[in-house]
Amino acid sequence: QTTTTSGQTTFSTTPVCSLVVPRIRDHIHRRTGRMWSTATIIIHLLLFVASAIAVHPFYKAAAGVGENAAPRENDTPAEARRLIANAAAIGLLEARLETLRGKLGKAAQVDLERNYRETESRLSRLEEPLCEKNQFECGYRSAECIYELFVCDGYKDCSNGYDEDETVCSIEPALAGITYTGTSHWTSCETRKDHQTNITILGYRIRKYSPSLIWLKALIESSYQAGGQEVQVTHTAIGHYKFATRQMVLLGEGPGSSSGAYCNFDKKDNKRAKCELVKISSLDHCATMLITLDESNDHLTILSDDLACTGSCADSLRHFSPPWKIL
Q1: Which of the listed ranges 39-48, 90-99, 175-184 does the model predict with the highest average pLDDT?
Q2: What gap in Å lies between CA 83 and CA 59, rounded to an integer?
Q3: Under CATH, domain 129-165 is a member of which superfamily?
Q4: What is the domain partition of the chain in residue ranges?
């Protein structure tokens, strides 16, 4: 807020993410650093106490103090009590050290980078986009926009070349053979309890006339309880993955021809997406599903060589498993 000489008050605004995201990142780093420093101090204190007990005049090493320690015949009652207390204290310290080792091991497994990406994505959705619909922004808050179909076409349309960046043009979300799994939560259209749904990519194609899209064929599998019986539903779907929006659209075929799914991947995360299941005729929302890549799928190793093929290289990309045909 600024007050001018004429008495008028003006307001200046700053994008939410430009203020909040750096603070969140710094908070995560500071919190992690404090956690490791505190754990290190506690371990050193416990080791110091254990060393002090070990050199205490009433600690008799020759007496075999430990879990099976017992007072010697010539020990006074006071010395015997101290020996037993020392043994109990050492056992307690060892147990606490083991607990700390376990906590430190779990702390090392925390994916801070993923937490940061998720927070950044949530905050960016709260801000109003700088680019119009069907446009692609050339980097976060860059204010430079290009038409979304120019993304990953082999030509750098953004001044910084971001539209051809390997992270933007990654085909990982659409590789043939991979499977996404998640739980479908129905809110309308049909009455179903939450149930598991699998989406397997059967094949993909990038065509020369539309390199900004990956055309897909997928297999949809789900099972749910209805009338006391388990119902199995399996059908194919066709659709596409768009590089500019990181959105996968699937339209059901056969038994699933009345429904479609829109799956949106977060920025820089090719393993997780939020899907909205809709009725094709009216686009009414029916269910929500959070899907995660099934990394146990054996096909991922076979197809790993394709990951390096992006941008202009994608024009020659062809992989079908099994073969299929797009209109």
Answers
A1: 175-184
A2: 6
A3: Low-density Lipoprotein Receptor (4.10.400.10)
A4: 16-112, 129-165, 172-320
